[in-house]
Amino acid sequence: MIEIYKMYDVAIVGCGPAGLNAALYCARFGLKTILFCVQEGGMISEAAVVENYLGFKQIEGRALIENFLRHVKSYDVEIVHEGVDKIEKKNGIFLVNGKYESRSIILACGSRKKKLGIEGESEFIGKGVSYCAVCDAPLYRDKVVAVIGGRNSATSSALHLANFAKEVYLVYRRGKLRADKVLVNKVMENEKIKLVLEAVPIKIKGDKFVEELVFEQKGEEKSIAVDGIFIEIGIEPCNALAVMLGVEIDEEGYIIVDHGMKTNVKGVFAAGDLTNVPLKQIIVAAAQGAIAAASAKDFLLENESVRKRD
Amino acid sequence: MLEVNDNNFQKEVIEKSAEKPVLVDFYAEWCGPCHALTPRLELLEEEYGDRVVFAKLNVDESPAKASEYSIRSIPVVKLFKNGKVVDEFIGLMHEDEIREWLDRNLQNV
After folding, report:
1. DSSP B29-48
2. Cα A189–A113–A236 angle (5° rounding)?
3. Residue B31 annotated among the catalytic residues of the structure
């Protein structure tokens, strides 16, 4: 038997900056709001410091999340610590996880780290291969590590690791780093960080733990001895729920939204890293959350008037 | 959850696990996903507390045990039986996934 608790105006999936800000705005609009939360703060939980969120010159990722949560919790938002793996649409009503009914949905499930897909990668997860420098950097005190990637997340991970490790190799397939200039300058000034450019990883080797990274550089196979390998080659959208609902995605899997964060499916909105809006930043995700909330409110009002006319 | 460290690990985990399985959550203050995982384990402790001892170890404050168990990624949760690690999972998991993991491991007790 399916147990129906109550009908919500909006169900928000994800509690990174997009989902949290959407919840804040929905609550302030007076909408009956439920927020599904697995990782509080989303990707911010993997950021050591944040230096580009307006109003905070420098703040620890965790402290920023605490501020966000405190703010959201001061409003009437029901927060459920439950992963969402199913949303169905029936007669214009959405059923989340088979038990929560809602009139609209805001998808804000964000993204996950991309894998390299090379030999040894999966085998050594937790045994030297890591996707979270902030979580694991202090475990590599005085060790040698490699960071794979050359954009903002890779360079900031390398900088964070340099606070602990003896030596940090920054391995990137291109000839030049593609991170913000502030970060590139810091990398260049850091004596512990060594650039390995035009290098494509091929294989991760080791016995019980990671010992070696094998890569190809200008047609030649080379390797470096390392204790840890941090993979920071970008993100991919968590779009499973979107696909389930028939929401249109682009060729890279990002949800296609209009300027109101509307998707092609009536009543379904999206915000944050999983949308096709190119700049993946906290402030952008938060702003998208606000827009999605406003669109959800308008959608609900329109529907209300339609219902009344009938 | 019971706070274990380098000093009491032998007594609270190794020795106790001869009577009842002991789950150890290796965490640190700096680790975001750890902060999301620990409250979930605390919830499950209410459900499984009579069958499993729930413990946590701060890897920063207990470097000897972190090194002995070769902790390279956190959060990592290890289950001890008779003084030995019998299973583990790495990273953040949903509450129901942890429940499945516990059920699977408790079947063989």
Report:
1. TT-HHHHHHHHHHHHHHHHH
2. 120
3. yes
A167, A181 in Cβ contact below 8 A?
no
pLDDT in tens, B67-106: 999 999 999 999 999 999 999 999 888 888 899 999 999 9
Could you tell me the pTM of the whole model?
A: 0.79
How close is the nearest chain A Cα to the Cα of B28, in Å?
8
A67, exposed or middle or buried, with CB in 10 Å at 0-12, 13-18, 19+?
Answer: middle
E-state strands within A66-166 = 77-80, 87-90, 93-96, 100-107, 111-113, 129-130, 144-148
Low-confidence ranges of chain A (pLDDT < 50): 1
Write out the two tokens for A47.
């950021």
> Left (φ > 0), alpha (ψ -120 to 50) or beta: where does A98 sit?
left
The amino acid at B34: C
SS3 A182: helix
Half-sphere CA count of B99, side-chain side, radius 13 A: 9
How far, in Å, CA of A168 to CA of A172, rounded? 13
- Residue B51 is encoded by which pair of tokens? 């069958």
* Catalytic residue (choose from B2, B14, B28, B31): B31
**Residue B5 corresponds to which tokens in the numbers above?**
């460290």
Q: Provide the β-strand partners of residue A101.
A: A7, A95
CA B56-A82-A114 angle, 5° bins: 80
- In DSSP terms, A214 is beta-bridged to A203, A223
Helix B32-48, helix B95-107: angle, nearest 10: 50
Contact yes or no for A111/A273 (Cβ under 8 A): yes
What's the CA gap between A236 and B97, in Å, rounded? Answer: 22
Residue B109 pLDDT class (50, 70, 90 cuts): low
Question: How much of chain B exceeds pLDDT 90, in percent?
Answer: 80
What is the three-class DSSP state of A17? helix
Q: How far apart are CA A300 and CA A292, in angstroms?
A: 12
In degrees rounded to 5, what are phi and psi of residue A288? Answer: -60, -35
**Amino acid A1: pLDDT:** 47
Cβ <8 Å between A38 and B92: yes
Is the Cβ pair B32, A208 closer than 8 Å?
A: no
Closest-CA residue of chain B to A85: B94
Tell whether the model's pLDDT for residue B9 goes beyond 50: yes
